[in-house]
């Protein structure tokens, strides 16, 4: 029962991502927005992660009421998204997306803490819980892609409404916490953690990783459409990447027994660099494109699983929530937003392939930084 309750919200949260990431840029293109406007609107999904997780993570750490905050974020975020149906134009839609994502981006960092604390000593089951998020993503990508073969792309917001309902219902199925405040952490300890060279390297690695994903999350669907792939084929290719991610989560516990987290991180960074080069140059060759999508297991799955261990190891019990929020904000937030904007300029000025080459350059820098500064985290307390 606990396993089902924990998995349920992951399923619906990532199902919403499965409906947004592959198709939202196509929806915006259909609304007549320019590539730079599309990049800006897509960047809001990442941009609010810079502030929102830190705000909500701090509230969660101070009050202990993470479940209530998750419920508040689910309900309020869903209500804010309803502004899309007003078709408010670029600036109005920008405000709607900023409001919606500010509350929506509060959910996952808080829920990661809830999940890990609920699992307790059974943290090795995290991958099996988290993989249901990947299942939700695949189901939404395939389902929405299939429906969009039959209905116009402007109907996408309506297709997302059942997913929002699933998020809200799932949030209210989580067991409430007691809300007991923990004793304050020693003064200055968070600053000491953040100034540690290995922690700096960890955050810089993840920042560059998300910069490199800017072209993928913003223009991959448009890139595929330019090469003649249908919306269903685009959805299936997105799903293939997440299937590879699921496979990685299932075997991750074996990998960490055979290799250090540093070795896994460096290998995953190198494979991600190769992935962006293949997409930039060989999109028309379907077997190569399929292989590139299978590398999503490295570029997201392996590096996220490793990062969870880093956060636990370096930030410990007192600063776990803030560490998770900083990971989300500084990497997915700042890195993702910067990557979206940079890719927008590259696509507007050159081509979609140039944006993926930009991602490859970012990964080369990340690989150099990690080789020099990334060390295994201490044992999580």
From TrEMBL:
Molecular function via GO: lactose binding; lactose:proton symporter activity
Q: Where is the Major facilitator superfamily associated domain?
A: 3-356
Q: Which residues form a coiled coil?
A: none
InterPro entries assigned to the protein according to its UniProt record, in alphabetical order:
HcaT-like, MFS_assoc_dom, MFS_trans_sf
Task: Keyword check for Magnesium, yes or no.
Answer: no
Q: Which UniProt keywords apply?
A: Cell inner membrane, Cell membrane, Membrane, Transmembrane, Transmembrane helix, Transport
Which subcellular locations apply to this protein? Answer: Cell inner membrane
| Location (main, coarse) | membrane
Gene3D superfamilies, per this entry?
MFS general substrate transporter like domains
GO cellular component terms, alphabetically, are: plasma membrane
Q: How does it sit in the membrane?
A: Multi-pass membrane protein
Keyword Transmembrane applies: yes
Report the transmembrane regions from the record: 9-27, 33-57, 69-86, 92-111, 131-150, 156-174, 194-212, 232-252, 324-342, 354-374
Q: What is the protein name stated in its UniProt record?
A: MFS transporter
Organism, by scientific name, is Marinobacter profundi
């Amino acid at each position: 029962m606990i396993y089902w309750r924990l998995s349920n919200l992951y399923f619906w949260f990532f199902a919403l991502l499965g409906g947004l990431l592959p198709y939202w840029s196509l929806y915006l293109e259909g609304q007549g927005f320019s590539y730079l406007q599309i990049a800006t609107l897509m960047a809001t999904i990442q941009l609010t992660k810079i502030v929102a997780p830190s705000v909500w993570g701090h509230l969660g750490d101070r009050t202990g009421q993470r479940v209530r905050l998750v419920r508040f974020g689910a309900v309020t975020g869903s209500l804010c998204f309803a502004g899309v149906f007003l078709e408010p134009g670029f600036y109005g839609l920008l405000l709607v997306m900023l409001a919606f994502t500010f509350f929506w981006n509060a959910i996952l960092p808080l829920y990661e803490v809830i999940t890990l604390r609920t699992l307790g000593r059974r943290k090795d089951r995290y991958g099996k819980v988290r993989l249901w998020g990947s299942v939700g993503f695949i189901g939404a990508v395939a389902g929405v892609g299939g429906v969009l073969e039959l209905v116009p792309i402007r109907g996408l917001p309506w297709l997302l409404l059942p997913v929002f309902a699933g998020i809200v219902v799932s949030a209210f199925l989580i067991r409430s916490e007691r809300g007991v405040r923990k004793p304050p952490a020693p003064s200055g300890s968070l600053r000491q953690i953040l100034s540690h060279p290995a922690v700096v390297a960890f955050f810089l690695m993840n920042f560059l990783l998300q910069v490199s994903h800017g072209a993928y999350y913003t223009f991959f669907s448009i890139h595929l459409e330019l090469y003649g792939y249908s919306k269903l084929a685009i959805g299936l290719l997105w799903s293939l990447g997440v299937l590879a991610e699921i496979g990685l989560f299932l075997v991750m516990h074996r990998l960490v027994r055979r290799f250090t987290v540093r070795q896994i991180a460096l290998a995953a960074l190198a494979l991600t660099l190769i992935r962006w080069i293949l997409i930039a140059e060989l999109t028309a060759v379907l077997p190569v494109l399929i292989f590139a999508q299978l590398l999503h297991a490295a570029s997201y799955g392996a590096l996220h699983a490793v990062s969870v261990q880093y956060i636990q190891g370096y930030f410990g019990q007192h600063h776990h929530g803030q560490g998770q929020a900083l990971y989300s904000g500084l990497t997915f937030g700042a890195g993702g937003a910067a990557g979206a904007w940079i890719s927008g300029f590259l696509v507007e000025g050159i081509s979609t392939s140039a944006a993926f080459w930009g991602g490859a350059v970012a990964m080369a820098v990340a690989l150099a930084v990690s080789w020099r500064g990334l060390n295994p985290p201490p044992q999580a307390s």
